[in-house]
Amino acid sequence: LKFTETPTELVDVRASETYLFMSAHFKVDASDMRLLYTKTGEWGKWKELTYKKDTLYGSQRRAGYPSMIDSFVVYFDYDIQVQFCDLSKGDAGCFKVSRSDEYGRYPIFKDKNTVIYSSQATTGDKSKIVIADITDKQNIKYTTIYEGSENVALGSYAVNDKYVLIKRRYSDPKDVEEE
User: Fold this and answer.
1) What distance in Å separates the CA atoms of residue 33 and residue 11, rounded to the nearest whole number?
2) CA atoms of 141 and 65, how far apart (whole Å)
3) Which of 87, 130, 148, 156 shows a CA-CA span of 20 to 30 A to 142?
4) pLDDT for 6-64, tens place per residue?
5) What's the half-sphere exposure (Cβ side, CA atoms, 13 Å) at 113?
6) Nearest by Cα to 84 from 92, 94, 71
7) Minimal CA–CA distance to 105: which of 72, 138, 83, 136?
8) Rounded to an integer, what distance in angstroms lies between the CA atom of residue 111 and that of residue 27?
9) What pTM did the predictor assign?
10) pLDDT, tens digit (0-9, with 9 covering 90-100), for 153-175
11) Which of 172, 126, 128 minimizes the C-alpha distance to 151?
12) What single string gives the DSSP state of each residue in the chain?
């Protein structure tokens, strides 16, 4: 990898057949974190994704649990919102996938037009697994495919044509009784 500056740490590195995407620390204390990407094979042409940089800075710039297909990446940010970016368009290709009244985490692509993610209402209600049809980014269609219990963390981890693999945190029954 060729950078004009040397990162101190690389995290959340993902690659598709056409792009590489990552969060990079440029200071040991994570006060300078950047979202970087490049086309595969163009290692001397790294670009910074500055989408939302005016509101998220330092360690808040981290792109959590990204998923990629071709030039497309989805991730959740420090605002706990799912973001989509078409890296071939840079910042102009970015938009929010999750809804304003929910926290969105652990996004994963099913295909280029479908993102699956974990959702929880900002009021703290039950967690859900949501499918977002992003074919029309101005009119995203949402479908809940699983609803968990209150205060139970959920995450989406893998998907194919028939199944979605999710994680669900279970409490030890003896710990619940003590609370």
Assistant:
1) 10
2) 22
3) 87
4) 887 788 889 999 999 998 888 877 778 889 999 999 988 999 998 877 776 666 667 88
5) 7
6) 94
7) 83
8) 36
9) 0.84
10) 677 677 877 878 777 766 666 65
11) 126
12) ---SS--SEEEEEEE-SSEEEEEEESSTTSSSEEEEEEETT-TT--EEE-TTTTT--GGGG--EEEEEETTEEEEE-TTS-EEEEETTTGGGGEEE-S-TTEEEEEEEEEETTEEEEEEEETT---EEEEEEE-SSTTS-EEEEEEE--TT--EEEEEE-SS-EEEEE----HHHHHH-
| Tokens matching residue 29 | 């204390």
100-131 tens-digit pLDDT? 999 999 999 999 999 999 898 888 778 888 99
In the numeric block, which tokens belong to residue 154?
């959920």
